[in-house]
Amino acid sequence: MKSFKRSEEYLARAERTIPLGSQTFSKSRTQFPYGVSPYFVTRAQGSRVWDVDGNEYIDFINALCSVTLGHNDPDVTAAVRAQLEEGVIFSLPHTIEAEVAELICEMVPCAEAVRFGKNGSDATAGAIRLARAHTGRDRVAVCGYHGWQDWYIGSTARHRGVPQATRDLTHSFAYNDLDSLRAVLEKHPREFAAVILEPMNTTEPKPGFLQGVKDLAHQHGALCVFDETITGFRYANGGAQQLFGVTPDLATFGKGLANGYPVSALAGRRDVMKLMEEIFFSFTFGGETLSLAAARATLMKLKTQDVIGTVRRRGERVIAGTRALIDKHGIGELLSVMGQPAWSFLVMRDVNGVSQFASKTLFMQEVLQRGILSFGSHNLSYAHSDADIDRLLAVYDQVFPLLRQGALEGRMNELLRCKPLEPLFRVR
């Protein structure tokens, strides 16, 4: 049985100086059940990571979808090393800023101009400020997860510390439900600056939904913004907007842009982006060159190799194989798989008085023990091999009967070796 002793010791040490022991909620003990989980890694290569106890895993989290080519991709690493010899940050812009912006404009349908940030929240917050400047309005309609900053997080259960006046300006609508968006927009006519949404997460957009969002936004004088922090450079080289054939006014990118290096981008219509010269969207490290070198190498690999197609084919195997195993073990009442091949999800439900979070905890307890790093999603990278997919499905074939025993046969307390997870907040 795998030991997590050193991870737990490091967690205790880290929590003395770092709240939760992590910089990211999704990497903390709120998402990994204590006693059966690793908390710290030491290295990663390709599709593999190793924790501080020396345990090896096939990584299906991939740094929350930010690693698209694989850990320590040789082309990206070589580009970063070469740039490091020239310098990291300068007193004037570096030419690589324009080169990466040109690549994005070449690849992304909506992109006529680009500004860089460091994480997805920078880009989405910049999009909202830009939309407010362009329209002279304050309200925003949202669907999905859009980062930690006040304008968005105030609309969720994690709104502590966000002023009520800010919270009142953000309005949620339901995915694949144009009537819900229409109702939001009509409640405050001509007051919305933007409609922002993830173009897809767990569910395919219904025919006409994305175009309907854009049309409704424009009918009400608002900009349409696609948050492609995850879908960008993962669903297609030009993102979900290319895959689904709907071009927004603005789009934000992050996780897929530089294979794990910290850079994000806001891109869109030239006339709107021109206002970036007047609003304040400025970062000391916005032009940091190591991340931009990684972005250039990543985008060039997307252009020259069949990254998207390979990931899609392997993701299709994951989805088909998982559905077959759900049927084989008779757990369709508890579990389903949803999403897109490059980013799919196990969706668990409350059954027989057993919480979905108890089932998720049992799932994680068992897959982590078998060398699969996952919290229920399949965040594939170009480095995943057919053998990795075979191993994932073999593990599911072992773990799904335990989920049946725990959730459907009333043995959850007997099978769990830890306290069940509790929900953080629901965003999708």
Notes on the structure:
The protein is α/β, with parallel strands linked by helices and 428 residues long. The chain has 2 domains: 165 residues, Alpha-Beta Complex (Aspartate Aminotransferase, domain 1); 231 residues, Type I PLP-dependent aspartate aminotransferase-like (Major domain) (Aspartate Aminotransferase, domain 2, 3-Layer(aba) Sandwich). Helices cover 40% and strands 15% of the residues. It has 16 helices and 14 strands. The strands form 3 sheets. It has a 7-stranded mixed β-sheet, with helices on both faces. It has a 4-stranded mixed β-sheet with strand order 1-2-3-13. Strands 11-12-14 form a 3-stranded antiparallel β-sheet. The longest helix has 23 residues. The two termini are 34 Å apart. 48% of the residues are buried. The model has no long low-confidence stretch (mean pLDDT 96).
Query: Radius of gyration, Cα only, in angstroms?
Result: 22 Å
The DSSP helix count reads: 16
Kindly identify the CATH topology of the largest domain: Aspartate Aminotransferase, domain 2
**What's the CATH superfamily of the largest domain, by name?**
Type I PLP-dependent aspartate aminotransferase-like (Major domain)
